[in-house]
Design a protein that fits this description.
Elements: H1 30-65, H2 69-74, H3 89-97, H4 106-109, H5 127-139, H6 145-152, H7 156-167, H8 183-191, H9 203-206, H10 225-237, H11 247-253, H12 257-269, H13 284-289
């Protein structure tokens, strides 16, 4: 038969069912989308945090520049303070006016490093301890937005000099109890501990008069009660984590709020002892690196 015979139908073409003329769209994995949004949100928070910190620094400097005489007088160093001004000009500039956009040490900690309420006293603290805390704020190991902003503006040399300066300030003072704590209970814990709760005596590490033991244990006598309580609460809640071997984490978790207030009020009401011997300049950084900082 002739292949052109109209009576014969041509064979049906074979269809490849796997053929797809359109390129299929592959969905983006959900974890990639979540990662992109998380990074964007983190970047936004970082920008806002830095912007707010810079604004606060500018406001503090403006307030200092235009403060009335009464305010400037209130910021004047206590008459009993010794060792003020015994540092190079650059260090004293940081103390009194700040560095760059970071505000000054004195604007929060007082002209003599005496502190106030939840802002700690710096005067007379071991130099290596102070250096370790500034390094921890700068690295993020210890969390405080304001202190991190200040610490990031400082060089290693700035930190070492500031630590030595505040360690050399002698300021004998005792503060009035402010938390309603049981002073007798606070004395017992400070001197003997509470072994039923496995809480050792504060003075077993911080010195027999709470004067601090360089390089790792800060002075507690005459420290602001509000600050001591706030740090114990932070250790207890796991918000502060820069204690080597988790020493203070474990101790604070075994303390109840009443005991924290009792200890804070008692230690703050103690007359501060003479400043611990300043760590030699060459060993400040080394001592800070191995410091078993506790409070």
């Amino acid at each position: 038969m002739n292949k052109n015979d109209p009576g014969k139908r041509p064979a049906a073409p074979q269809v490849d069912e796997a053929f797809d003329p359109w390129e299929r769209t592959r969905p983006v994995p959900l974890f990639v989308v979540a990662l992109v949004f998380a990074l964007a949100f983190w970047g936004l928070l970082t920008y806002v945090s830095e912007y707010q910190a810079q604004r606060r620094a500018l406001q503090v400097k403006q307030q200092q520049a235009g403060a009335p005489a009464a305010v400037r007088a209130a910021l004047a160093p206590p008459a009993a303070a010794r060792g003020l001004g015994e540092a190079d000009a650059a260090t004293l500039q940081i103390v009194a006016a700040g560095k760059g956009q970071a505000w000054s040490c004195a604007s929060c900690h007082g002209a003599a490093g005496e502190g106030s309420l939840s802002t700690p006293r710096l005067a007379g603290q071991p130099a290596a301890y102070l250096a370790k805390q500034l390094e921890d704020f700068r690295s993020g190991l210890r969390h405080n937005e304001s202190m991190a902003f200040v610490a990031r503006a400082l060089t290693d040399q700035d930190i070492e000099k500031l630590a030595r300066y505040y360690a050399g300030i002698e300021l004998r003072a005792a503060l009035a109890p402010s938390l309603g704590g049981n002073l007798e209970r606070g004395r017992l814990i400070a001197e003997k501990g509470d072994w039923k709760s496995n809480v050792p005596a504060c003075f077993s590490c911080h010195g027999m008069n709470g004067e601090g033991v360089a390089p790792g244990f800060p002075a507690l006598a005459g420290q602001q009660p509000d600050y001591i309580f706030a740090q114990l609460a932070a250790w207890h809640a796991g918000e502060r984590k820069n204690s080597p071997q988790k020493l203070m984490d474990d101790i604070a978790r075994r303390m109840n709020p009443d005991d924290m207030r009792a200890v804070a009020d008692y230690l703050g009401s103690m007359p501060s002892a003479a400043s611990p011997a300043a760590t030699p300049p060459a060993t400040v950084a080394q001592g800070a690196a191995r410091s078993a900082s506790t409070l």
